[in-house]
Amino acid sequence: MGPALGRGPELSKSKKAMAKKLTLLVIHCTDTPAGREVSSDDIRHWHTDPAPKGRGWSQVGYSDMIHLDGTVENLVPYDTDDEVDLWEITNGAAGFNSTARHIVYVGGKGGDTRTYLQNVALFGYVQRTIAQHPDIKVAGHHDLNQGKACPSFDVARFLRVNSIPKKNIYKP
Ligand SMILES: [Zn+2]
Question: How close is the Cα of 28 to the center of ligand 1, in Å?
Fold first, then answer.
């Protein structure tokens, strides 16, 4: 977790030396009920408002979010190279953030609530990310932090049945 969060791309060049390689795409859910929409502002409040209202993090937990209608909204910008610059870091999974990108779908409370359009969007997102970063591995939050239910579905199975190559599955 780096200090210079939420700055612009102009900082990236001087910070390049500290950037680590992007190795992980982590899938999350917002842990909200089926059919209830969540805005990017909601997520910003939950994560960055001071405790006890929010978690008091320096940055949100996800780079992108997938709304109920399949729209992908960017929360924290990133570039297309293979490094996680400090300004790209999001706080989705303690211990993994300096080498990870995090994507969240809206829903997931009590089980897999993905809509058809979210499912399609998520698969497209995974495919595009792998096309840009051929060595990346895709994980569910529960694969990294034991005891977490997030994202409320078996990510490895989702990847396998959609013919994602084994080398891109974190726990194949
Ligand atoms: Zn999560």
Answer: 4
- Ligand 1 centroid, distance to 10 Cα (angstroms): 29
Q: What is the CATH number of the domain that holds 83?
A: 3.40.80.10
pTM given for the model: 0.89
Residues in the chain: 172
Is residue 82 a part of any domain in this protein?
yes
* Cα 150 to middle of ligand 1, angstroms: 5
Residue 74's domain comprises 22-168
Predicted pLDDT at 3: 47
- Tell me how far the alpha carbon of residue 76 lies from the centroid of ligand 1, in angstroms: 16
CA of 25 to the centre of ligand 1 (A): 12
Whether the CB-CB separation of 46 and 40 falls below 8 Å is answered with no
Task: Name 13's Cβ contacts closer than 8 Å, sequence gap at least 6.
Answer: none
Q: What's the structural domain count of the chain? A: 1
Instruction: Answer whether residue 161 is part of any domain.
Output: yes
